[in-house]
Design brief:
- The chain is an all-alpha fold.
- The chain has one domain.
- Helix content is about 80%, strand content about 0%.
- It has four helices and no strands.
- α1 packs antiparallel against α2 and α3 packs antiparallel against α4.
- The mean pLDDT is about 90.
Length: about 100
């Protein structure tokens, strides 16, 4: 029996790490969107932290990985805009700018 049987490959482990990071950031980002001013500051930082899994994907999987991760994050961010900030064009402009970044 192989010693690696039943273990995750390095590639799958890295993919899982990226998915966990994106999921965790997304949940946290949704939860603190409308809270106090202090939590809104954390909300802004969480938006910037989406760059971390994108950079990790670029390092581990190249351009394709970075683009796939960016697409996933952009979809999550778009959902966040539509669900957390409906009818708030001033805030929507900030949020759409973060997708572009």
């Amino acid at each position: 029996m192989s010693a690696t049987k039943g273990r995750l490959s390095a590639r799958r482990l890295k993919t899982l790490a990226i998915l966990v990071a994106v999921s965790g950031l997304t949940v946290a980002h949704f939860l603190v969107a409308h809270a106090t001013h202090g939590l809104h500051e954390i909300h802004i930082v969480l938006g910037g932290m989406y760059l971390i899994p994108i950079i990790a994907a670029a390092l581990w999987f190249g351009l394709r990985g970075a683009l796939a991760t960016t697409a996933l994050i952009s979809l999550a961010y778009y959902a966040h805009i539509r669900l957390s900030w409906p009818g708030q064009p001033m805030e929507n402009a900030n949020e759409f700018a973060m997708i572009v970044v």
